[in-house]
Design a protein that fits this description.
Elements: H1 7-25, H2 32-39, H3 44-50, H4 54-70, H5 75-78, H6 84-96, H7 99-107, H8 109-112, H9 115-143, H10 151-166, H11 175-191, H12 199-221
Domain HTH tetR-type: 8-69
Keywords: DNA-binding, Transcription, Transcription regulation
Organism: Bifidobacterium aemilianum
Length: 222
């Protein structure tokens, strides 16, 4: 079977096409047939050889995009910043400005309403992302920009609050609510000596909200 000759190459092609279609048409507007057509020569059976369902393709696409954002390079060495705290803020701003990844996730409205799917998505991501955030927190403790704490616990709480408390409802909120919730996050993390949420992070979140709302309005007119 052709799919066995270059499994990674075929898998990458499927994800590349699916990612493009999810961005163009949204998850709910993209079918397996659309992905087959976009691949030009690969059969539906070949897709199912690699992925059992459209939702599993979606999970792989969003996981890959998250890895590109957080794990694609040695962020601690390459990001600007004079302290662990500054580097962590930079990471959050860049993540919030990774508009295409967020657009893919929020295009899957049906999946975002499924507790099982949401739970699996975020639990699968939490350990990976926390391992990226944790070293910045540890660096901040060592350089004095962050108060002593357990880096892994703080990383997990930050991830959960950003993604579960705010992220799941982001497009359903008003702009003022987004800013208000991020300011509450600022108060919480300032209070434990991890002042990672600053005005730059809040503005990036508000900008992301505006971009997603604009995309939703454009999709509604299409």
């Amino acid at each position: 079977m052709g799919t066995q000759k270059d499994p990674e190459g075929h898998r990458k092609r499927i994800l590349d096409v699916a990612q493009r279609l999810f961005l163009e048409k949204g998850y709910d507007g993209t079918s397996i047939g659309d992905i087959v057509d976009g691949l030009g020569g690969m059969t539906k059976g070949a897709i199912y050889y690699h992925f059992p369902s459209k939702s599993s393709i979606f999970e792989a696409v969003t996981e890959r995009m998250a890895d590109d954002d957080f794990l694609g390079q040695d962020w601690r060495a390459d990001w600007p910043g004079n302290s662990g705290l500054e580097k962590l803020r930079n990471e959050l701003v860049i993540s919030l400005r990774s508009y295409s990844r967020h657009e893919v996730v929020y295009s899957a409205q049906a999946m975002l309403k499924s507790p099982r799917m949401v739970g699996e998505m975020y639990l699968n991501s939490m350990d990976r992302i926390a391992k990226v955030i944790g070293p910045y927190i540890q660096e901040g403790i060592e350089d004095g920009s962050i108060e002593p704490c357990d880096p892994d616990d703080v990383a997990e709480v930050l991830f959960l609050l950003l993604n579960m408390w705010i992220g799941l409802r982001l497009t359903a909120m008003a702009k003022e609510e987004v800013a208000r919730k991020f300011r509450l996050l600022k108060t919480i993390f300032d209070g434990i000596g991890v002042p990672v949420i600053d005005e730059g992070v809040i503005q990036a979140a508000v900008d992301l909200y505006g971009g997603l709302q604009g995309s939703n309005r454009a999709a509604g007119k299409a």
